[in-house]
Amino acid sequence: MRLVGGNLALDFVNTRVGPPGAAPDDDVLTGYPELIAWGGYAADLTDAEATALRRRARDDVAGADATFLRALRTRDYLDEIFQALAARRSPESTALDRLRDDEADALAHARLDQDGGFAWTWRDDHSLARPLRPVVHAAVGLLTTATMERLKRCEACSFVFYDESKNRSRRWCSMEDCGTAEKMRRYIAARRSRLTRERPGNPTLRRPSDAPTGATASAADAT
Fold first, then answer.
1. What single DSSP character describes residue 109?
2. Helix axes 32-41, 47-59, angle to 10 degrees
């Protein structure tokens, strides 16, 4: 799982993988345990919080399943918002309304901590929805403070990311992955096209002086 979005909410959207405009072909989130695992991997949860949530999920299976479905719905509307913005379109108001409501819920479970500066934290939130609340808050923070022109979608996959390059020239979620793969694809396509043009018998290679013998003889007879 690559964390290339530059924002927790974008990385959450990127847990579903697939080419642009096509159905997803892989999904990191397959259940509530995977949601906890992703939260730990993305530094959304501490080890202690993850352990406590696993224990609570075992004690409340129905609640964990309901929270997992909520996570998928949250990802759906966040994906809708950020994919639209990356394509320079306005998000649907219904998606923004859901984000507003979820942000209100997130802040209702948060506290303001001072650690070199004030920030919202969820240290006292022990509910099953704990992994989702920083994600929602990160989405609101991005929408309200970031430059939307820097929000982009990878040219080779469906990942969205925030372009922090000086000249806003980033095109790939990761040069090591999609950037290299796309360059290789273009190289192979160009090489295949060149070989096709250079293949013996290809009529597009025939020069004017290479006219068939019969045609030359006919022209001489006419003279």
1. T
2. 170
What distance in Å separates the CA atoms of residue 58 and residue 62, rounded to the nearest whole number?
9
The alpha carbon of 76 is separated from its chain's Cα centroid by a whole number of angstroms, namely 12
Enumerate the β-bridge partners of residue 153: 160
- Joined tokens for residue 139: 């989405």
CA 90 vs. chain centroid, Å, equals 18
128 backbone φψ class: left, alpha, beta (φ>0; ψ -120 to 50): alpha
Tell me the three state secondary structure of residue 89. Answer: coil
Centre a 10 Å sphere on the Cβ of residue 205 and count the other Cβ atoms it contains.
11
pLDDT averaged per 10 residues in sequence order, the chain, 223 residues: 91 84 79 97 96 98 98 97 96 98 98 90 96 98 95 88 87 68 49 58 53 45 43
Phi, psi dihedrals of residue 7, rounded to the nearest 5°: -160, 140
pLDDT at 101: 98
pLDDT at 175: 60
Element (H, E) at 112: strand 111-114
- Helix (H, G, I), strand (E, B), or coil: what is residue 180? helix
